[in-house]
């Protein structure tokens, strides 16, 4: 059983992950949030929660993560903020989280990125700053020496998950439910075939764990 430190617990994928950890029981969770009311709501629902901020210091994040075995980074600045927040959260926040993992002695790190973030030729022009942030955050993680997995989902949907995905180093543009992204994160935690790998993720016809074993 791993103790997982979730960064971005209040986001849409983060909220789904929190629910899955509670139901699954295979691993335990400590959720990182920025606001006291978020912390109180999580604790009232039975999830351990701590206050820390991606715009704060790597030391503060490391202290919040102490005693955990893995970090899952699902944080994002969201579509309604400016490019400054994209830099501060999606890039610098991710870099601080990697730093914090090293400071806290945590080797396992899962990053939720974006489809084709590794391939500049396929970046959406309208979202270029977001892709730049994801691209370099992923590169920082890949060079970190941590046991990483980088999951690059396509367009995110609120449809119910199917439990089936398509995962590969390169995929055409596609979409996937946030439920199935969360399922893939959980399944990746202790799947050795995802260690030190980065892959695109869309809706598909292969059960999550089976798809990960075929990477």
From TrEMBL:
Domain NAD(P)-binding: 8-192
InterPro entries noted in UniProt: NAD(P)-bd_dom, NAD(P)-bd_dom_sf
Organism: Bacillus amyloliquefaciens (strain ATCC 23350 / DSM 7 / BCRC 11601 / CCUG 28519 / NBRC 15535 / NRRL B-14393 / F)
Any Pfam family hit: NAD_binding_10
Protein name (Swiss-Prot/TrEMBL): Epimerase
